[in-house]
Structures are given as C-alpha cells and as structure tokens.
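Hi F.,

I've been meaning to write this up properly since the lab meeting, where we talked about keeping a consistent format for the predictions we share between groups. The idea is simple: the sequence comes first, exactly as it goes in, then the structure tokens exactly as they come out, then a line or two of notes. No screenshots and no reformatting. I'm using this chain as the first example so we have something concrete to point to.
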Amino acid sequence: MKIENNSRNVSIIKDPFGNNVVMINDIVFRGKRGIKWSDVEEYLRQYVGEFYTIAETNEIVYIGTDLPDEYAHSEYTHILKGANEKAKANAAQGLPELIITATNMEYTKNSKSKHKKDAMFGWYKYESRFALPVFDDNGEIKRYNVFHVAMILRHAKDGKKYLYDIMNIKKETSDLFQSEDYTQ
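Output, unedited:
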C-alpha cells in the first residue's frame, strides 16, 4: 500500500542490516516543559477511519475513534518524560508506516473485564522502529536517534484489529544514522 506523505515528511528505509526504519524527518511536537498532548490527540484524529496492512502478516489494522484519546492520555503516556515523551508524540506522524513495517507478532488473551467489548478476542503486540532527527545549533541534522516500539492492537467484538497504543519506547544505542552517513 502506497502512502501519500503530502503533509508528512516520513519515509521507510532499510538499516545496514536490512531492517525497516521509519524515518520521521520533522519534529512537529516539541516543548521545553513537556508535550502538549491535546495537540497530539488532535493530530491523530486525521487517521480515524483509515486502515493499513502489516506487510509481514497481511493483517489489516484499523484506526478507531478511541486511538487519539488512548494514545495521548494512557497510563503509559503519563509516565513518559524527556526524550521518550517527545519520541512518542512525534511517532504519531509515522503511524501508517509503523503499522506497515510491524514485525514479531505476539498474541495475548484479554484478561480484564473492562476490555470485554473493545478487545473481546484479545491483544496483539508488534514491534517497529522509527528514527527522529537531532539538530545542531544551526538547525542542521547531526544524527538520528532510533527508537524501538511495541504497537498494541486490540481485536474487537466486530472482528477487526485496531491500533490501541504504542508503548515500551526504547532508544537504541546504535549510531547507524550519523549525518555524514545519511542524507535525505
């Protein structure tokens, strides 16, 4: 599935080991005192009603009306600070590509009664990776920080799988994408 990136500066590249990395080339959400999550929630509303296919499994993932609120206000989001908070906020720009490049599916049965309806058939966790630019004092990209993320899907009563949230954001220690190694 081809994604039009008219208002988003996002692409999928391969790292030197042949693994997909979603390159998010703009930092849209910034803040010295934290992210304004209501802005992220509003941004995410553009995806509601869309669907994307995971290349590895051919599973269709839908974006439901609950994603913007859950993504911006989940318990996981509330504990984030610093680079991981900014990473989650800016990962919103690359959600379609993160879904398409998701790998390593794991299934878990639903164990909470509060999710009896919205995740009746359980949960799926996929992994994905994305990179965000780090700018120098002159506004030039000096490197990219690469992050690993777990994408949580709920398998709903209607039989569809919906993106529920992204969690477990971990910055990789790799320096694969230094500015002298990678240019847009």
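Notes:
Residues 10-171 form one domain.
Residues 1-6, 179-184 have pLDDT under 50 and may be disordered.

If this format works for you, I'll send the rest the same way.

G.
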